[in-house]
Write a structure and sequence with these properties.
Belongs to the MAL family. The protein has ten helices and no strands. It is mainly α and about 325 residues long. Helix 4 packs parallel to helix 6 and helix 8 runs antiparallel to helix 9.
Length: about 325
């Protein structure tokens, strides 16, 4: 694998980096503070908004402290791998939170200060998404001319990030435990989502170590095994979740109108049937991502076994988007 020299991009304490990071800190802090000040969060999906905003605020603050104090040089010569991966995650989280909040939360709030605070918080969440996206693009563009290998630059890395991102959205919906506690098959599906998320996180960590030349094992082979296992698990979830949620003979509800929480007089948020449908759709989307990931991993292993190009160009020929 080619070696690289450190080039921090936005990791350096430049005017651009300082401005973007402070904007991230301000927008996530204001969003979480506005919602917390009026107590608009609810049990279930809405509590995840607060979690995402607070998490982004804390991690961004830690990154600023590490980079401003030059502590990043004590962690790794390739510290920039962490900020760019985090910026990608944070941009996706803030963007999805803004969309979900604007469509499933704000419209059901009564007119008044609570609604105004929620609208303002959603707007600041959009600003945060733009700020994190700016950091991601800025760092990506800054690294490409120097041919610095970061895991998020690779097709495999991007797919892993998307898989875990979709899994986090699924977790937001299944935080409503009434969706699955009554049926062991649905509990299995929740176990599948959790297991695959853990495996995906492990794969990302292995990828970061591999790109830093820290991993002695055959990384593409291990990734292929993890991805194949995840595909099999997701296939079982894609079959079981719709069957036990929407087939009446198996205890499901085929019609939205049959769900008491979806009737107009009770609907003040996304009802249970809508959440069940959202999880089914997200499961199918994630399965497609895992299948694409499996194809990429298979090509990488095949090329390792039957190399057609110089080994020094291996990552760039298959990984770089």
């Amino acid at each position: 694998m080619p070696t690289t020299s450190s080039s921090p991009g936005l990791c350096s304490w430049t005017i651009m980096g300082c401005s973007v990071r402070l904007l991230q800190l301000l927008s996530t802090g204001v969003a979480s503070s506005l919602v917390a000040s009026v107590g608009t969060q609810r049990v279930g999906v809405d509590n995840w908004y607060m979690f995402f905003w607070c998490f982004c605020y804390i991690v961004t603050l830690l990154i600023i402290i590490v980079e401003y104090s030059k502590l990043r040089f004590h962690f790794s010569s390739h510290w920039y791998n962490f900020p760019i991966n985090y910026a990608c995650y944070a941009a996706l989280f803030c963007f999805s939170t803004s969309i979900i909040s604007a469509t499933t939360y704000v419209p059901f709030l009564p007119q008044g200060p609570t609604r105004n605070h929620a609208i303002t918080a959603t707007a600041f969440s959009c600003i945060a998404a733009v700020a994190y996206g700016t950091e991601f693009v800025w760092t990506w563009v800054g690294h490409r001319p120097r041919r610095i290998i970061t895991y998020v630059h690779t097709v495999h890395g991007l797919l892993k990030l998307l898989e875990n991102f979709v899994a986090c959205i699924i977790f937001a919906f299944i935080s409503n435990t009434s969706l699955y506690q009554h049926q062991p098959a649905l509990v299995w599906c929740v176990a599948v989502y959790s297991t695959c998320f853990i495996l995906g996180t492990l794969a990302i960590l292995l990828g970061l170590l591999y790109c830093d030349n820290w991993l002695p094992i055959r990384f593409p082979v291990s990734q292929l095994g993890l991805t194949l296992f995840s595909v099999l698990l997701y296939i079982s979830a894609l079959l079981l979740w719709p069957l036990y949620q929407f087939i009446e003979d198996l205890g499901g509800q085929s019609q939205r109108s049959s769900d008491m929480t979806c009737r107009d007089e009770f609907t003040t948020y996304v009802c249970n049937w809508d959440q069940r449908l959202a999880v089914a759709v997200l499961t199918a989307i994630n399965l497609l991502l895992y299948v694409a990931d499996l194809v990429i991993a298979s090509c990488l292993v095949s090329d390792r076994l039957h190399p057609r190009i110089p080994n020094s160009l291996y990552l760039w020929s298959y990984y770089v988007v």
